[in-house]
Amino acid sequence: MRPKVSVILSFFNDEKYIGEAIKSVLAQTFTDFEFLIINDGSIDGSLEIVKSFVDKRIKIIQNPKNLGFTKSLNIGLTKARGEYVARMDSDDICFPQRFERQVKYLDENLKVVLVGCWVEFIDPDGNSTGIKKFPTKNSEIKKVLISFLPFRHPTLMIRKKVLDEVGFYDESFVFAQDYELILRIAAKFLVANLPEVLLKYRNWPAGSISLEKQKQQDFFALKGRIKALTNGWYPAWQAIYLIKPSVSFLIPTFIKKPLVKKFVFK
Questions:
Q1: pTM for the complete prediction?
Q2: Largest CB tally within 10 Å, which of 64, 75, 108, 246?
Q3: Are 105 and 192 in contact (CB under 8 A)?
């Protein structure tokens, strides 16, 4: 029988956190889901941890080698049978009512095709570092979407038929694949965030990600914005929002690195 929700989680060498992430999904008050877990070529103990969970809803998908996050998510989407697709990351933690709240919202708001929620930021040790509230209404989200992404990827629940219509993740995006997809979906459909915290999001501190990787993330986020404007998905005047990210991206790493050290680690 077709499950109501397909949960998609891709992991690569995340033995420290993946057990807690899986437990939080299996502990959901809403239980009608399949749990597609994609092993993207891990070489640590992550896979053994995943296999230690005995639950008929879990389906482990083994990539033949490390294919990258975007391709792995698309592999999961091709296998998904649910009416809704829920994203989850291997280092985050769902609140028990997350799926129940999101399914209820989508069932009751048929014109909305994608819903996220607010998040509680946690540090690498799991300590709370604050709450992040995003715009909740479609009109509010559309106003800021080119400027910044008012969602967190692992909070998303999306109607599968819409993904089949607009296409899955763009595999040319190594980073910011969620931003590009959301821009594409929001250009045609209504989207929303629930005004409640339903996920603990592990927020890595400044400096824990290399400047080179951050530069790649900035590049793909900028690429997604340019794609959206070039294709006419959003008003041309919103190109003004490209100024700040463009300037940030153009600052050479050898200049940005000492600035980060001075103002972030001071």
A1: 0.92
A2: 75
A3: yes
AA identity, residue 44: D
Instruction: Fill in the DSSP letter of residue 52.
Output: T
For the chain, the straight-line distance linking the first and the last C-alpha, in angstroms and rounded, comes to 57
Neighbouring residues of 231: CB distance < 8 A, sequence distance ≥ 6: 187
Instruction: Tell me phi and psi for residue 20, to 5 degrees.
Output: -65, -40
For residue 88, what are the CA distances in angstroms to 25, 105, 256?
Answer: 8, 18, 32
What DSSP string describes 70-88?
HHHHHHHHHH--SSEEEE-
> Which pLDDT does position 61 carry in this prediction?
98
How far, in Å, are 14, 28, 166 from residue 89 at the CA level?
Answer: 10, 15, 23
Q: How far apart are CA 228 and CA 140, in angstroms?
A: 18
Kindly report, residue by residue over 175-214, the tens digit of the pLDDT: 999 999 999 999 999 999 999 999 999 987 655 555 667 7
What is the DSSP annotation of 162-191?
A: HHHHH-S--TT-SS-HHHHHHHHHHTTSEE
**Could you write out the DSSP letters of every residue in 203-248?**
-PPTTSS-HHHHHHHHHHHHHHHHHHHHTTSS-GGGGGGGHHHHHH
CA distance 191 to 158: 9
Q: Read off the pLDDT of residues 17-29 as tens digits, 9 standing for 90 and up.
A: 999 999 999 999 9
Q: CA-CA distance, 46 to 90, in Å (whole number)?
A: 10
